[in-house]
Amino acid sequence: METANQYEKTWWGNGKRRIVGIDEAGRGPIAGPLVVAGVIFPVGYHHEAIYDSKKVSEKKREALYEVILHDALAYHIEIVDPETIDRKNIYRATQDAMQHITEILACDGVLTDAMPLPACEKDVLAIVKGDQQSVSIAAASILAKVTRDRIMYAYDEQYPQYGFAKHKGYPTKAHLEALRQYGVLDFYRHSYGPVAKMDQLQMDLAFDD
Q1: What is the pLDDT of residues 42-78, one digit of tens each?
Q2: Given the DSSP bridges, would you call strands 109-112 and 74-80 parallel, antiparallel or unpaired?
Q3: Contacts of 198 (CB under 8 A, 6+ apart)
Q4: What are phi and psi of 51, to 5 degrees?
Q5: I want to staple 25 with a disulfide (CB 3.0 to 4.6 A). Which of 31, 109, 144, 162 is the partner?
Q6: Residue 59 CB contacts under 8 Å (≥ 6 apart), including other chains
Q7: CA distance linking residue 135 with residue 191, whole number of Å
């Protein structure tokens, strides 16, 4: 597996020097935050091991995380709490976090993993499977994934009965069973179906009492 830098090369050739790749981790889970990251590499940067975080082992992601922090010209990681996700919806929360990264990092071009940013004043390319085609997006996906996983491991230490270390907040069968057995914690996303269903059930039981 190897992520190309062809999109970066094209823009570098056109005079752009600070191209940010942006990606996220955690749009699908019913618990925990959304994490969005942006990475700017030096002109000409390439690294054969940096690839879509979902296709890289956890041990390798952890090692690449340190490589990326060392090699990047600049990076930024946004952690979006469940309350914001519930208020905005996950799509808008993701888009707003990505937009904020473009404003924080002094960039002259933006590559995203299939997310349009209509409010961005910079040139933006929303690339389908961008984390497999752009080294900058792939690096951002690794920063986001590692950061989010670490948060979920911390939740697992606090609430081991939920199994967060295994499912990372995704609605697996075991997770939904734990949710039914132990109840909704304050870092769940109440706008997501399984959690909303549990909220309603708890309200119904409280009303019956």
Answers
A1: 999 999 999 999 999 999 999 999 999 999 999 999 9
A2: unpaired
A3: 179, 180, 183, 184
A4: -150, 170
A5: 144
A6: none
A7: 33
* Overall residue count recorded for the chain in this entry: 209
User: Distance between CA atoms of 50 and 67, rounded to whole angstroms?
Assistant: 9
pTM: 0.94
31: DSSP letter: B
Q: Which two tokens stand for residue 10?
A: 């094209």
Q: Which two tokens stand for residue 190?
A: 């109440």
Per-residue model confidence as pLDDT tens digits over 114-140 = 999 999 999 999 999 999 999 999 999
Read off the tokens for 37: 């990251």
Alpha-carbon Rg for the chain, nearest whole angstrom, is: 19
Fill in the DSSP letter of residue 121: S
Helix (H) or strand (E) holding 25: strand 19-25
Q: Which residues contact 51 (CB under 8 A, 6 or more apart)?
A: 1, 2, 3, 131, 132, 138
